[in-house]
Specification:
heterodimer, A: 642 residues, alpha+beta, Immunoglobulin-like, 5 domains, five-stranded antiparallel sheet, 7 helices, 31 strands, elongated, B: alpha+beta, Serine Threonine Protein Phosphatase 5, Tetratricopeptide repeat, two-stranded antiparallel sheet, 8 helices, 14% strand, globular
Chain lengths: 642, 263
């Protein structure tokens, strides 16, 4: 029963999926495009978050074209795909795929000026059909406006209002590909976003790989030729999968992978040729285990017509690098300063175009100020088919005299290719009040820039390059003289070896004294032993035998104890032998001593008295022994563990 | 006896109280002068600034920062030779003075480029042998203190070793002694080299504007060669107002003493 239920559920699921698939095959669902901002009121200078949510159901991955933000500054952007689901039916070119995608694009934007901003529609291409949202407006209030002063007008695309465009080829340029002139399996193709531009205008060049085969790896071994252009590489977001779409060329469906995307800015007029790009591709036809091969493919060359900038309304001294869409601001970092205190004038152009090559106004001599060479800062963000960013020029100015100064207007012009007009933006930096300077060094320390000096150009440049005076100088510590011959230095140099020598001498003296003490003790022991032996020799014949040998034993032991400075009477013979060897006696001496003592022991307790001759011999042996031992140098007793 | 003690106490108090006060006064004066010179510099009066810096140096102050400022003021006045001279003086006392090395390189490049534009082949970068290059990395003071430190450490270790019984520790100390002996000799050689440099090596910078003609002999009118402003030379001999010098290429000649400045 349970099995039957399980089978029924599977069958229902299959039917539902098949139905959905069949529906997809007939007409793709319209994508849902949702746009929202994170607040009701948008104020100039306050960042806000704009989210574009695109949900599609189609047989192929959708192609999304996001709106351009124009004068709105993009502080951060991110992309996420919380849902992506697909499965396929069939094989090869008849392969039918059903996919459901959801993409969320989040932008952190800020408007530098109040006003109404219109954003272009978001375009989503699904299965060759193009869907377009409505354009939407953002109303930015001036800074300081209270929330609720005016409502935020943001049009959100109603799916019903989305206007399906007439079915078209997946990409306009794809039409231009002659199917007979390309490899039907895989080929490289370059595309330009425009075929005619004005000098300095941005044009996007994309290198695509078209393939019907599986591609293992792609290596662009020659970049497209960009002679005659300033080029900026556009970040396409990393993986090939991410940049992959399906397109149709001459009835054949290809996977199209974007290999390289460049923003090109023509720097000369006339017809410019873009040399072909070459890629090495690792391709495989069939399943996972089919054979791979590496092939090289070259793209076609491209030509671009570059028109000169119009002469009409062209501002005097206009620089052809300033082409694009920008806003511009010039500001001083303070409105009050003292003589000598640095003031910074910052000019910033922000927008879309060849940011790196923008030429900002040059500040000429300002009466009452020393003006320094500008420091330039460039931020470029090249992604999403656009190059945006900012270029700032910071100019340090030092007031020379007190007074009220008006920094002259720093107007800046650029050419807007969209409207084909020159636009001049006003950038008055404003007024600054300079008070008399304090009699100070102008700072807590460090290096302060200074007067450029003469009017000589090269010398002036030299001065600008040099690091200026310091406010720190150790005026007390800077005495002249040589350390090496200072008395205290020489004293210290001599002190160390002197101390070492003194310690060595003291140690040696102490050792000598210890040795002398030992020698003295040795002599004393010698003398005492000899005296005792002499005394004993007088009574050799008259003394009882046991007393005689006991006395000899006592003399030997006493002699040893004097020499060794330790008691040996309690030692066994083997202990005594070891001790003697340990203290510097050789083995023969030790054996003789032990033998004599043992002999005495034996004689003392032997039955019957020993003969006088035998006693004299014993006395003589001991005298010889004492003579021999007198020359032995006794070593100090070793401490435990040493 | 009591009178003697009282007198001794009074003298001690006077010395103890007055001497620091005098030192403080001197410090305050020097600081004021230094600030005044800096302010003159910032207001564009480089001549006054250079003059005050020079006066402070005449008092006997030999601070690298002071010489650096004086050099920079001279440079602003266009006296590039004097600027090089004072920058070189900074490096004599503080060879690692980063700002000085930077400025000196730029000024020498500038003078060389100026000479090349005038059709003369000039290279003002000082050419020194390896030993001189090593010596130029150290100030006399740092070399002396490095030697003293290693020297003291060596004998402290030697003394310690006498009292150590453990064979392992003695071995370690022995290795350390070997290393310290090498370091002591090396730093000692550098310290003596610097001493010799300070005492015996007399070098000068050409302070004459533009170029300096080096003559065959004192009061001679026969020119031997030309030196660029800012060139470093070795002083060999002085006779009256004339100085015999030798350049980096080993050429000798005579110039008027006022045309050069001894480092």
């Amino acid at each position: 029963m349970r099995r039957l239920l399980y089978m029924t559920a599977l069958a229902i699921l299959f039917l539902v999926a098949s139905g959905a698939h069949a529906q997809q095959g007939v007409a793709p669902n319209q994508p849902k495009i949702g746009i929202k901002v994170d607040r009701d009121t948008l104020v100039q200078g306050e960042p806000f978050e704009l989210t574009i949510n695109i949900s599609t159901q189609s047989a192929v991955d959708p192609v999304v074209r996001l709106p351009q933000f124009g004068a709105l500054r993009v502080l951060r952007q991110s992309e996420s795909h919380p849902m992506s689901f697909s499965f396929s039916f069939g094989t090869g070119q008849k392969n039918q795929r059903f996919s459901k995608h959801e993409s969320i694009y989040t932008f952190l934007l800020v408007a530098d000026r109040p006003g109404k901003y219109q954003l272009n529609p978001t375009i989503v291409e699904v299965d060759g059909k193009r869907f377009k949202s409505q354009a939407y407006n953002l109303n930015i209030l001036p800074s300081g406006s209270s929330p609720g002063a005016a409502g935020q007008a943001l049009s959100q695309t109603d799916p019903k209002n989305q206007t399906p465009q007439a079915p078209s080829a997946p990409d306009a340029t794809v039409k231009e590909i002659d199917p007979g002139a390309v490899d039907p399996n895989y080929f490289l193709h370059m595309e330009l976003s425009d075929s005619e531009v004005t000098v300095g205008q941005m044009v996007i060049l994309t290198v695509y790989l078209y393939t019907t085969w599986n591609v293992g790896g792609i290596h662009l071994i020659r970049e497209p030729g960009t002679e005659g252009f300033w080029a900026e590489t556009i970040d396409t977001g990393g993986s090939n999968r991410h940049n992959q779409t399906q397109v149709t060329v001459g009835g054949t469906t290809y996977d199209r992978v974007s290999l390289r995307k460049l923003a090109l800015f023509p720097i000369k007029t006339g017809e410019i040729t873009i040399a072909p790009s070459i890629a090495q591709i690792e391709v495989r036809r069939g399943g996972l285990f089919s054979k791979r091969k590496k092939v090289k493919r070259s793209s076609q060359p491209l030509t671009l017509d570059v028109l000169p900038l119009p002469e009409k309304d062209r501002p005097d001294g206009f620089n052809t690098a300033n082409v694009g869409r920008y806003n511009y601001r010039a500001a001083l970092d303070r409105t009050d300063a003292r003589v000598g205190e640095p003031v910074t004038l910052t000019m910033t152009a922000r927008g879309s175009g060849n940011i790196r090559n923008l030429i900002l106004p040059q500040l000429k001599d300002v009466p009452g100020f020393k003006v320094y060479a500008p420091e330039t800062e460039v931020n470029v963000n090249a992604r999403a088919n656009n190059v945006t960013g900012s270029r700032s020029s910071k100019i340090l100015m030092i007031p020379k005299k007190p007074g009220v100064y008006v920094i002259p207007g720093l107007n800046w012009s650029y050419f807007d290719p969209a409207s084909q007009k020159y636009k001049t933006l006003k950038g008055s930096a404003g007024k600054i009040t300079v008070k008399p300077g304090e009699n100070s060094t102008g700072g807590a320390g460090g290096t302060v820039e200074s007067d450029p000096g003469t009017g000589d150009g090269s010398f002036d440049r030299l001065n600008r390059k040099l690091r200026s005076i310091t406010t720190r100088a150790d005026l007390q510590g800077g005495s002249d003289g040589i350390t090496l011959n200072r008395p205290w230095f020489l004293f210290l140099v001599v002190l160390a070896p002197f101390a070492w020598i003194m310690i060595a001498v003291v140690s040696r003296t102490r050792r000598k004294m210890a040795e002398n003490k030992l020698k003295g003790r040795s002599k004393k022991a010698d003398a005492m032993a000899r005296q005792a032996l002499t005394h004993l020799s007088l009574g050799t014949d008259s003394m009882p035998s046991e007393e005689f040998f006991a006395e000899i034993q006592r003399i030997i032991v006493g002699f040893l104890e004097n020499r060794l400075e330790t008691a040996v009477a309690g030692d066994t013979m083997s202990e005594l032998d070891a001790r003697l060897v340990d203290r510097g006696f050789n083995e023969e001496h030790a054996a003789r001593i032990v033998s004599e003592i043992e002999g005495c022991e034996f004689a003392r307790f032997a039955r019957g008295a020993s003969a006088p001759e035998e006693r004299r011999k014993a006395l003589k042996r001991v005298e010889n022994l004492v003579d021999d031992l007198g020359a032995v140098r006794v070593t100090p007793e070793k401490k435990d563990g040493a | 006896m009591t009178k003697l003690l009282t007198a001794f106490t009074l003298v001690t108090c006077l010395i103890g109280g007055v001497a620091p006060a005098l030192t403080q006064d001197r410090a305050a004066t020097l600081d004021d002068m230094f600030k005044e010179a800096n302010n003159a510099f910032w207001s564009g009066d480089y001549e006054k600034a250079a003059d005050i810096y020079a006066r402070i140096e005449e008092i006997g102050v030999r601070a690298p920062g002071l010489s650096f400022n004086r050099a920079t003021a001279e440079e602003r006045l266009g006296n590039l030779g004097d600027a090089v001279l004072h920058y070189e003086r900074v490096l004599r006392r503080d060879p690692g003075h980063e700002d000085t090395i930077y400025n000196l390189t730029i000024i020498r490049d500038y003078i060389a480029r100026r000479a090349n534009e005038d059709g003369r082949d000039a290279d003002l970068a000082p050419h020194a042998g390896p030993w001189r290059a090593i010596l130029d990395r150290f100030s006399p003071k740092s070399a002396a203190f490095a030697f003293l430190a290693f020297h003291m450490a060596l004998f402290v270790i030697l003394i310690l070793r006498r009292f150590v019984r453990s064979e392992m520790t003695r071995l370690t100390l022995g290795v350390l002694i070997g290393v310290l002996v090498i370091l002591t000799f090396a730093t000692g050689a550098v310290a003596i080299g610097k001493y010799d440099q300070e005492v015996n090596l007399r070098e000068a910078i050409v302070t004459q504007d533009g170029t300096l003609e080096v003559m065959e002999g004192p009061s001679s009118e026969i020119r031997r060669f030309i030196l660029e402003e800012g060139s470093r030379v070795r002083v060999l001999e002085i006779q009256d107002d004339w100085t015999k010098l030798r350049d980096d290429q080993g050429r000798d000649g005579w110039v008027r003493t006022e045309q050069i400045g001894e480092i």
